[in-house]
Amino acid sequence: MSHTYPILTVDIVLFTIKDDALHLLLSKRTNDTEAFPNQWALPGGYVHVNEDLNLIDTATRILQHKINIRKHLYLEQLETFSGPDRDPRGWSISQAFCAIIPFEDLQATPEIQWINVKEIQTHKLPFDHNLIAARAIERLQSKSSYSTLPIHFFKGQFTLSELQKVYEIILQQKLDKSSFRKRLDDMNMLTLIKGSFKGGAQRPAQLYKIKTDTTSWFKSTL
Amino acid sequence: MSHTYPILTVDIVLFTIKDDALHLLLSKRTNDTEAFPNQWALPGGYVHVNEDLNLIDTATRILQHKINIRKHLYLEQLETFSGPDRDPRGWSISQAFCAIIPFEDLQATPEIQWINVKEIQTHKLPFDHNLIAARAIERLQSKSSYSTLPIHFFKGQFTLSELQKVYEIILQQKLDKSSFRKRLDDMNMLTLIKGSFKGGAQRPAQLYKIKTDTTSWFKSTL
DNA sequence: ATAATAGTGTCTCTGAGACATTATGAC
DNA sequence: GTCATAATGTCTCAGAGACACTATTAT
Fold it and tell me: Closest Cα to residue A11, out of A88, A110, A126, A171?
């Protein structure tokens, strides 16, 4: 039995909707690391046994300290990537997470960058981060096709038209308004905010928010 | 940043169909471990950086060395469990896997035991193995409801009636023969074995096998 | 009034389930 | 022939999508 330990990290694929397109976050690696210093990569870091209560906690801490995210985000285990070659420092394990943030909740800094997912394949990312990103996109699309996951792209309230648009951006296809609303109604995840409307130069739209006490629902991966 | 390392293990929930019921494997822990010696638990072990090419490889090695499984099994990442309290030895991470084996492929030994999943909650397992087992059962049921995953409970060939019975055992409900066959046909995962039949004292049934080159299909978790 | 978007109603068609019917072997 | 199970066909009903229609605001 070997007593050599693998490198143990957590990497996060953080999604947002920006300019009507799905984007994911890259962060600039520090210049004092042995592995790919100063390169753009998925945000990640080591597990800190003395601070973290579990790996989700690790992910949350990394988002707080490296990306300066204070709020509680939707965060879900994606998959574990492992092997001797994925990290130049040696045999490594990375627990990948999917996360979602409303665009307005994260302010721009020189250390972070949003990349349109359509362009992600043209960026050669370090480690196996291209693979991790691809898996995360697949998962996001898959879950969006049968759940209300995309509501996490909104901060608080939203109209059904806005929500439908986000679904269409993620799934890369037009959806029928009528069926979309019927399905959402069946899922029973939204409550309308009484007397609250959002209008431009047309008929104002009813605002909705996530029904409280129904947030745990998603967590299962199945 | 802490340089203390977590304990790193892989645990496997291995399923089979035995006596027309879904069972999972427990193995007896060795008496020289600090954690729960001689108790029955999910088979598991440490990651060996010098031997294993990745965590699936770790799982395969554990199945070979501890359970004496030589064949290639269906094996899929389930979820990662982590925290300071789940293992008495300290902060630990366990990558859990789901696996499936045809009952005939594993011979009984005093070190292993098949437990009916219906009785699993009455067994108090060490670590968080009750939770891991519960998640694995959920996942198996979920995937069985929309995929051909249950074909892995068979060794080579099987009839559609046999396969339907396994689905019914896993999903805990009767299925309609006609719809079941229509769906299987749509999935296009089986080929009939020409001229091969299996009969009792009734009309013999056509034997089928998994279509070659369509095995990678399942691996995605989504 | 018109423009523009919100929101609902109607129709059709597909697919799943319930059930009936036919097929094929052993005896 | 009967019995038992395999295999297929028919019917109905519910849900999804296509599309049309109505509603409500600003101008």
Answer: A126
B46 backbone dihedrals φ, ψ, rounded to 5° = -80, 155
SS3 A104: helix
DSSP B187: H
Contacts B8 to A, Cβ<8 Å: 5-6, 8, 93
Query: Which nucleotides on strand C sit less than 7 A from a protein beta carbon?
Result: 3-10, 16-20, 23-27
What is the distance between the alpha carbons of residues B213 and B194, in angstroms, rounded to a whole number?
Answer: 19
Write out pLDDT tens, residues B151-195: 999 998 999 999 999 999 999 999 999 999 999 998 888 988 877
For an interface test with B, give the residue of A8, A93, A128, A145 to mutate (most B CBs within 10 A).
A93
C11 C1' to A69 CA distance, Å? 49
Give the 3-state secondary structure of residue A65.
Answer: helix
Q: How far is residue B39's CA from residue B28's CA, in Å, rounded to a whole number? A: 6
Residue B199 binned pLDDT confidence (cut-offs 50, 70, 90): confident
* DSSP element (H, E) containing B46: strand B44-46
> What are B166's two structure tokens?
């396994």
